[in-house]
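Long-time lurker. I teach an intro course on protein structure, and each term I like to show students one example going from raw sequence to a predicted 3D structure in token notation. This year I'd like something fresh instead of my usual example. Would anyone be willing to generate the tokens for the chain below so I can use it in lecture? Attribution to the forum is fine with me.
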Amino acid sequence: MQQEHVLQGKVALVAGATRGAGRAIARELGSAGAIVYCTGRSTRTKPSDYGRPESIEETAELINDHGGTAHPVVVDHRIKSQVQSLVDRIEAEYGQLDILVNDIGGEAYVEFDIPLWEYDWDHGQRLIEAGLMTHLLTSHCALELLRRRHGGLVVEVTDGTRKYNATHFRGTVVLDLTKTAVDRLAYAEGHELVDYDGTAVSVTPGWLRSEMMLDAFGVTEDNWRAAAEANRGKTAALPPYEFVISETPHMLARGIVALAADPQRARWNTKSVSSFELAQHYDFTDIDGSRPDSWSFIEAMESTAATELSVDEYR
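-- Reply from a regular --
Happy to contribute to a lecture. Here you go:
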């Protein structure tokens, strides 16, 4: 469990806090005492083009109703004026920014296993804008405020560790480019923040058991593992067997809180790290008490039949 109020007095911005990892990160930061600005495009009265039911107000309420302090702000992080207005508001209200989490992913625009020449260009452009340009623009607007107080933390949430992505094609050129570029962004930001004792790190969850993923596979938090186990050794089945190694968004969120609370977090500057690696280093688990090592399990399945692997050895 996270130590309570270890981030008291800190101000955090979670860009993309409507659902999934972003929502969990905002909640865990709030539980640890940070003041959290939760941003997104979906409201109760006006959902984004994702067409999902989750809203940014709901995320803030989950924090405020449990004694935290959260401010929901509707922001399209593709539009500079909106992002700059948000940063100006944070400066006016608190005069500081200690933690920036860029979590917007653009998952709704991914089309897997489609070659570049056949890819729907509108979707491709939206994926790059949502999954990469939002990160770059938000940092462009926010880092000047963050760097004023030495020791600031920037977290770039991506998909896949630097090591894994270096040897694995992520299914489509547009997705591959977007996710690897986000990791490189953290590497570059770390170099520019080092003179201000700042830390920038690229983080990745394992196979994330988000609301969107559960819905996509037609499972729930109660039956996901049984459904995946039933497909062991099968091909083209949903959910795929690898889903047995999935984790909740809170595992990554707990790792980010641990990073933010670590007075020696600069050791991670410019690095790429997984939720499992953070869990190992800071000795915490997912909310069910497990510690899934998704990336090792997925790589093991490349050379070992699913029927010969024990998932329990990776949890």
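Some talking points for your students: The radius of gyration is 19 Å. Residues 183 and 301 are 25 Å apart (CA to CA).
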